[in-house]
């Protein structure tokens, strides 16, 4: 069950990023079939490599496992940006969010 989730989530995030299995394997420093082997069920990444995959997608492990987030990398970037703002700017952005949700 969890193995399928990991495989499917990597595929989902890879497709949203617009990279091939080969390109992702290369970017991670592995042989061309590395991501294919994960996606096809032949293997799972070890924990250290899982963290590298999360870094590759610019998300945290928690965001990786939260499949309710359609674009976790964008939410992660937004939260990082909010952390750099002062209280007045955060309140202003929250006002925009409230207005957009109506």
Summarize the topology.
Blueprint: H1 2-17, H2 21-27, H3 34-39, H4 47-57, H5 61-65, H6 72-83, H7 87-101
Description:
With 102 residues, the chain is mainly alpha-helical. The protein has a single domain, classed as 434 Repressor (Amino-terminal Domain), CATH 1.10.260.40. The protein has seven helices and no strands.
Number of domains: 1
**CATH fold call:** 434 Repressor (Amino-terminal Domain)
N-end to C-end Cα span: 38 Å
Shape-level CATH architecture: Orthogonal Bundle
CATH superfamily descriptor = lambda repressor-like DNA-binding domains
**Stretches where pLDDT falls below 50 for ≥5 residues?**
none
Number of strands: 0
Mean pLDDT: 92
Number of helices: 7
Radius of gyration: 17 Å
Structural class: mainly alpha
- In CATH, what is the class? Mainly Alpha
**Residue fraction in strands:** under 5%
Q: What is the N-to-C order of secondary-structure elements (H for helix, E for strand)?
A: HHHHHHH
Shape: elongated
Characterize the main sheet: none
Helix content: over 70%
Offer a concise description of the structure.
This protein has helices at residues 2-17, 21-27, 34-39, 47-57, 61-65, 72-83, 87-101. The chain has 102 residues and is mainly α.
